[in-house]
Specification:
about 350 residues, alpha/beta, Spore Coat Polysaccharide Biosynthesis Protein SpsA, Chain A, 2 domains, four-stranded mixed beta sheet, four-stranded parallel beta sheet, 10 strands, about 45% helix
Length: about 350
């Protein structure tokens, strides 16, 4: 489902980039040969089919450096396939104008978890120490002496499609591109969608109270304060744990994780229900606190509440407890408590207008 959503968002992004009229070239670097027919007329394709000698691991930094060198790029705006699904053609044009202005520029949508970025000159990205995942790109630039400008924190700049929960948000937001919206509306996510709609309805309820837990920044808090009618209980912890390696080193710590360890899963969600009428939970922080490394499939199945299909016993029990909680619990990753909430606030406001 997520891979299909990435393809749909990619098609929307390419259409917007071409209509922006601000890019000299629009290019897709991919190892999916089946994408080539879909991209005809929309973009150049830098096809990199997987080779047996490469081993199983994709390395983002090496691939990016190779593209910059091979095509002798002087400046670029990079976007992951699921990044910026709410960005308009005008917003992409503004990015191109800033990056192509001629001076040294480094900008990112998020300093701690990059989904898209711009660099001029692009040859700064040809070193051999670039990060293996794109979310560490802005942090890499800072450590190498660049002054990285972060874009204004809006739903358009902060929301990206990382997990199945983000597909639910695409269903709800009026600004999704037509490819992404059609795809999101075509997948079967009814049970998870009902939980999200129940939680989302509380955002506009003056008597409502919601819990937000995970890698939420001050921009999320400000948006909740300004854009919702409900009361909010925020547990903000472990921002940047992936980009700076704390998760990989087993150093991530969570207040909610400590509480979970003390009371167990059943009492944990019943305890949350005494604090709010719905909860948006970045479950990856809890997993990292407990030093769990569930597979991508298990993480995504957990987001959807499909406990019986999960392989990891603890994640299966956690997911079942979340589904059976007295309040709607929406599970997801970083995007849920960052750009996802910004998008939900906008979607809730649009429904009341």
């Amino acid at each position: 489902m997520v891979a299909g959503a990435h393809r749909a968002v990619l098609l929307d992004t390419l259409e917007h980039a071409r209509s922006a009229g601000a890019f000299d070239r629009v290019m897709v670097a991919t190892n999916w040969p089946e994408l080539v027919p879909e991209l005809a007329g929309l973009a150049e394709v830098d096809l990199d089919p997987p080779r047996a000698s490469d081993g199983p691991a994709f390395h983002f930094g090496r691939r990016l450096a190779e593209v910059v060198r091979r095509h002798r790029l002087s400046a670029l705006v990079y976007m992951g396939a699921g990044g910026g699904p709410l960005l308009s053609a005008d917003q992409l044009a503004a990015l191109a104008e800033e990056v192509g202005a001629g001076q040294q520029v480094a900008l990112s949508n998020n300093l701690y978890s990059t989904d898209f970025a711009g660099f001029s000159p692009a040859n700064v990205l040809t070193g051999d120490d670039l990060p293996d995942r794109d979310n560490g790109l802005a942090q890499w630039a800072v450590r190498h002496g660049f002054e990285v400008r972060t874009l204004p924190r809006t739903a358009a700049t902060q929301f990206d499609v990382d997990t199945p929960t983000d597909l639910l948000i695409l269903q709800a937001h009026p600004g999704a591109g037509h490819h992404a919206r059609a795809y999101a509306e075509g997948v079967a996510l009814e049970a998870a969608s009902q939980r999200l709609r129940r939680a989302m309805a509380l955002l506009g309820d003056i008597d409502g109270e919601v819990i937000v837990a995970g890698r939420a920044g001050s921009h999320t808090w400000q948006a909740l304060e300004a854009g919702t009618a409900c009361r909010v209980r925020l547990f903000a912890e472990e921002r940047g744990m992936v980009a700076d390696g704390r998760e990989d080193r087993g150093e991530a710590r969570s207040l909610l994780g400590l509480y979970l360890e003390q009371v167990g899963l059943g009492r944990f969600f019943h305890g949350l229900a005494t604090l709010g009428q719905a909860a948006f939970v970045d479950s990856r922080v809890l997993f990292a606190h407990l030093k769990l490394r569930p597979s991508r499939a298990d993480r995504y199945l957990s987001d959807l509440g499909k406990a019986s299909d999960i392989s990891d016993p603890w994640v299966r029990e956690f997911t079942q407890a979340a589904v059976e909680a007295p309040i709607p619990v929406v599970l997801g990753g970083h995007s849920l408590v960052s750009g996802g909430l910004l998008a939900l606030i906008e979607a809730a406001r649009a429904q009341t207008q």
